[in-house]
């Protein structure tokens, strides 16, 4: 009986230690239950056609475990702080709990945004649907930036830093920062304009007539755009440059143009009309020529040594390799038509008229 009495006395005086231990134990049990539910639920949600449910469960998994331990440890620390009768420690625990809770919530939002971004892209690829990576990435970047800024402002408020003072300091310090980092800001806003105006996207072939820039866009960041040139070298272009140069996007062309000048001899002047009609007929019946676009076969010049006619038409394909094959086929058929009309293509020649009475002597000394 004496032992029981002593134990009850100890429990009465040290019961707060037992309470703290039980809270930590309860946190451990809740963490275990949460992990078991996640392992069973998440694989099933991944098989559904809706992406938001598995994104929510995935994003909630680790932040929720962190939140359970935040609450458990902070409550246990509260009990210790009450019995320690230290107001400063109690206040510090409250701030730490609020900040850790904010961190867990920001972490949850980050995981949700990232998983949703990757999940949307992967699912559309599996369904063989078009994917606008640039827009999806831009929206995700903006959402992440919003979460960070909001989290920082709330965090400062938790530690007693007035937001109005921070904003006032930002207004004054922003001028100095703007001068010191004007190139960085120019690249940042250049990247923002790319995301908003969308002159090109990841995977597009772009070129600039103002700069030696040509290749396939691999990545669009907030400061740099990565381009893979056609000789397989990576090119990193600051985004600020795109606000000062013209950019062509051949990937978005609807057709490719065939434009050529063919030279015929003056000796075949009577055959030109028939040749032009045959070439135009060939183009209008060619399976790879888009007859809804401009199509012209016209005599455009009577030059000093040739009759020049122009072929102007558009192919259906925009693929560069296939276009080269179609253009080659058109040129070969044009030459075949010229030959079928018993005509010849011209090459630069000069005619020398020799007056009568002048003898011409060949290389052997004989008169002609």
Provide a quick synopsis of the model.
By secondary structure, this protein is α+β, with helices and mostly antiparallel strands. The protein folds into three domains: about 15-175; about 185-250, SH3 type barrels; about 255-340, Alpha-Beta Plaits. The chain is built from eight helices and seven strands; from the N terminus they run H-H-H-H-H-H-E-E-E-E-E-H-E-E-H.
Describe this structure in words.
The chain is an alpha+beta fold and 368 residues long. The protein contains 8 helices and 7 strands. Strands 1-2-3-4 form a 4-stranded antiparallel sheet. Strands 5-7-6 form a 3-stranded antiparallel sheet. Helix 1 packs antiparallel against helix 2 and helix 7 packs antiparallel against helix 8. The longest helix is centred in the N-terminal third of the chain and has 45 residues. The protein is elongated, with a radius of gyration of 39 Å.
Kindly list the characteristics that best describe this protein.
7 strands; SH3 type barrels; 8 helices; 13% strand; elongated; four-stranded antiparallel beta sheet; 58% helix; 3 domains; three-stranded antiparallel beta sheet; alpha+beta; Alpha-Beta Plaits; 368 residues
